[in-house]
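Re: that backbone. Tokens:
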């Protein structure tokens, strides 16, 4: 008997669908299932957990049929590279840097955010920036479109601070937040639509901070070799190609001229943490499982054979603008 599985986006990856349907409980179980149990999509054998599924696709597994059903109208479609973060959420949490209080205090000072003010952390992921904002006393709401990442957010923050939503349709009332932060995610958005929604939820004169992380591995012996390998793997990527969000902000005519500040924080470093950071990169997550595992293993070998300082700098580039 067929079972309808409703999804909120227009597409879903096979591994995500199996978890949503309750067939498996984790990414590792998906991998084991695909290696041991015959599975088909629309009658054709399939072993790739990253296979993109669409409305009406039929997955047959363990004598059960799962029919993909997208919600009418749907929400903004996630970029395929962004959708892959759910498969590397653990690596993301272990490898990505923690934002220091100085970073969020600088943002609050630049945007004139009052103590205790309500702030929206948009596309919050696993909550790295959300936690830092809460840590300096701000009242933070985290919005994240992917259910697996929201579960991590809820486990750490409580359900009252976490909402399901996308940048192009923010689930908050008009003029309800003093500032909006976006960390390493604005390049995934429809810039114009996202800026209109951010404008809607901001109070008069409210501000936007767009953060970008740049790890500095120049002090490590393996930096050039690993950097070259990563660059060779990178596909066309919206963070590196195409117009920046600043152009859309200028075109909108309701924002101050975007400016940038550059901050540096020193983070503990060891080979395992660096490998986890690399494994959490979107284009690494998008590789087929076997190739990703082989690549991460190879990078790990290079790093382990070299010298890694006990601490490494991480540069945080913060783009800033406010409503006029």
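Recovered sequence:
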């Amino acid at each position: 008997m067929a079972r309808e599985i409703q999804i909120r986006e227009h597409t879903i990856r096979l591994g995500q669908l199996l978890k949503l349907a309750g067939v498996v409980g984790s990414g590792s179980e998906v991998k084991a299932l695909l290696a041991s149990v015959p599975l088909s999509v629309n009658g054709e054998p399939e072993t790739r957990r990253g296979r993109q599924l669409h409305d009406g696709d039929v997955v047959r597994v363990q004598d059960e049929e799962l029919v993909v059903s997208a919600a009418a109208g749907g929400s903004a479609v996630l970029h395929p590279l962004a959708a892959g973060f759910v498969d590397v959420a653990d690596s993301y949490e272990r490898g990505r840097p923690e934002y220091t209080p100085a970073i969020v205090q600088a943002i609050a000072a630049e945007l004139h955010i009052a103590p205790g003010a309500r702030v929206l952390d948009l596309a919050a992921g696993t909550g790295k920036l959300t936690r830092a904002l809460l840590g300096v006393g701000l009242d933070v709401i985290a919005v994240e479109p992917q259910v697996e990442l929201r579960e991590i957010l809820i486990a750490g923050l409580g359900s009252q601070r976490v909402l399901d939503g996308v940048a192009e349709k923010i689930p908050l009332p008009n003029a309800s937040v003093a500032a909006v932060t976006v960390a390493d995610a604005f390049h995934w958005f429809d810039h114009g639509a996202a800026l209109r929604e951010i404008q809607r939820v901001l109070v008069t004169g409210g501000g936007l901070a767009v953060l970008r992380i740049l790890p500095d591995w120049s002090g490590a012996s393996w930096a050039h070799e690993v950097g070259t390998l990563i660059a060779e793997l990178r596909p066309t990527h919206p963070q590196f190609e195409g117009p920046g969000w600043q152009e859309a902000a200028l075109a909108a005519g309701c924002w101050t001229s975007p400016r940038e500040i550059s901050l540096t924080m020193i983070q503990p470093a060891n080979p395992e943490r660096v490998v986890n950071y690399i494994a959490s990169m979107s284009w690494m997550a998008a590789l087929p499982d076997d190739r990703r595992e082989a690549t991460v293993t190879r990078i790990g070998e290079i790093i382990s054979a070299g010298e890694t300082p006990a601490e490494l700098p991480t540069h945080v580039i913060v783009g800033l603008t406010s409503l006029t």
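DSSP finds 13 helices and 14 strands in the chain. The longest helix spans residues 289-305.
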